[in-house]
Amino acid sequence: MARILRTETSLRRRQAAIARELAVRHPVRIAVWAAALALLAWGALHAHRTGAYPGLVFGAFAVLCAAGYEVRLREIAAERRNLEGGRRGEQQMAERLAEQLADDHVLLNDLDFRIAHERCQIDHLVLAPSGLYVIESKFWAGTLTGDVRDTQWTQLRPDGKTRIVKSPVLQVERQRRMFIALLAAKVPDDRIHALAVFTHPAVRLRITGGEGKVFLVRDAVRFINDRCFDPPILAPGELLDLANRINDRQA
Are 158 and 139 in contact (CB under 8 A)? Predict the structure, then answer.
């Protein structure tokens, strides 16, 4: 079993922040709609009695603002659902890596670096004697179609809807390049691998050229374990020291 030095925290913090925001917004929603409808009713009554319409226009504007508030509330609720799915996928991936990798591997989850003006956020980082594995995990269901060189892919979701998504391959390759710059040649470039892993049980991959880059969870674990037969580049002490120094940068 791999040693875990860091667990996921950023998604949990964001979920907690959204929960606090919704706890405030839901009671305010009632007050906003009550005020907007009251203004609309007053404007309509005033227009009926006087034939003047400024009050009615103001009431209609208030209802429009309330509708905008409602849309924003639904967007926040949708973000909370998406975060829950993403967190569940990352947790499953972390558990599988920890359970199925050898005890000379070290696992760090949810890393966040800044190099110059760029931010590098890594879902999972596996440090092994054979090299390092930068992993981007996606909890996406349905059929994904595209090419590894494309910036965007097409996702046909189980509900039949289609959406365009950014390529996680390009995302994780960027993370790999930034991580190489961060390490400053402590590990050979060809021993730092970038893996885009799809954790949802109902995902199908139709990605051209995806060999060695696009994985289901079981295939990603197998890919890392197969590299165990490569000549080691990190001794146990060096590996743990590097893992601790990377983890310390998160403080």
Answer: no
Distances (CA, A) of 191 to 24, 67, 134: 49, 53, 11
Quick: pLDDT tens for 109-131: 888 887 777 788 889 999 999 99
C-alpha closest to that of 7 among 98, 101, 69, 137: 98
SS3 86: helix
Sign of CA dihedral 51, 54, 59, 64: positive
List the helix and strand counts (H, then E) for the chain: 5, 10
8 A C-beta contact, residue 136 and residue 243:
no
Secondary structure (3-state) at 237: helix
- Rounded to whole angstroms, how far apart are CA atoms 24 and 181? 43
